[in-house]
Design brief:
Shape: elongated
Radius of gyration: 23 Å
Number of helices: 0
Number of domains: 1
Structural class: mainly beta
Length: 246
């Protein structure tokens, strides 16, 4: 899919910079009792790289993740994505179902747990046509020697935006089993998803885990006593409604 990034063109108020004069709109005195004046604001390009990460549970507040945020600038960007940590599991023969641990962030000067989440931001102008958040898992969980954890799956469910409204992105209501093909987590059209949004993956279960990210390993799976890991790929596709498919 062709990826596009729209650029917001900002006007400079030359007079305020000493580079020229700004000719304002003169007041329109229609008659003795009616006057029309002008209100004006100039939007300047935001060239800072401070990511906005709304709290998944209290979106009106911002949080600071303990893990690094995205260092790359852009008007359309993924500001932060939680890693999935399933903790430690004993090598047993029965089937395994393990929820991912909560992520930890700083909020109001205190460390607090939050379900894994994805923070996006769209600061493009009025020519934006929305976006689509996708996820894939190109390869199976493997250990350091390249041995795969055969049949193991990572499932996402219960996707939600705490500040649901008409302008909120639309989440995929289905349970998603991660695989090689990219799957859609959330979509936004031209009237949705502008600004900063945080997609929560499930709900906290009261034991420091989330019911929205689950690892399943079939019974009688051969397992080495070691660490297994995999790469999970997240992509924010600009203007998916333009029909410029892959």
């Amino acid at each position: 899919m062709k990826k596009t990034t729209r650029t917001l063109t900002a006007a400079l108020v030359l007079g305020s910079l000493g580079l020229g004069s700004v000719i304002g709109h003169a007041a329109d005195y229609e008659d003795a009792t009616n006057v029309t004046t002008e209100g004006r604001v100039t939007i300047l390009e935001n060239d800072t790289n401070d990511p906005v990460v709304p709290d998944p549970e209290n979106p009106e507040e911002e949080v600071t993740p303990e893990e690094p945020t995205n260092p790359h600038p852009g008007l359309l960007r993924i500001n932060y994505v939680s890693n999935f940590d399933f903790g430690q599991i004993k090598n047993v023969s029965r089937a395994i179902e393990q929820e991912a641990r909560q992520d930890y962030v700083w909020s109001g000067g205190q460390e607090t747990g939050r379900v894994p989440f994805v923070a996006t931001e769209d600061r493009r102008g009025t020519d934006r046509l929305g976006w689509e958040l996708q996820v894939s898992q190109p390869k199976q969980l493997t250990d350091a020697s390249g041995h795969e954890l055969q049949g193991a799956t990572i499932t996402l469910s219960g996707l939600r935006y705490a500040n649901a409204s008409d302008s909120a992105p639309v989440v995929n209501p289905n349970e998603l089993v991660l695989g090689e093909a990219a799957q859609t987590l959330a979509t936004a059209d031209a009237t949705q998803g502008a600004g900063a949004w945080t997609l929560a993956l499930g709900n906290a279960d009261g034991e420091g885990q989330t019911d929205g990210v689950v690892l399943r390993v079939p019974a009688n799976t051969t397992k080495n006593d070691t660490v297994y890991s995999t790469a999970i790929v997240w992509e924010l596709v600009a203007d998916p409604t333009t029909g410029t498919g892959e």
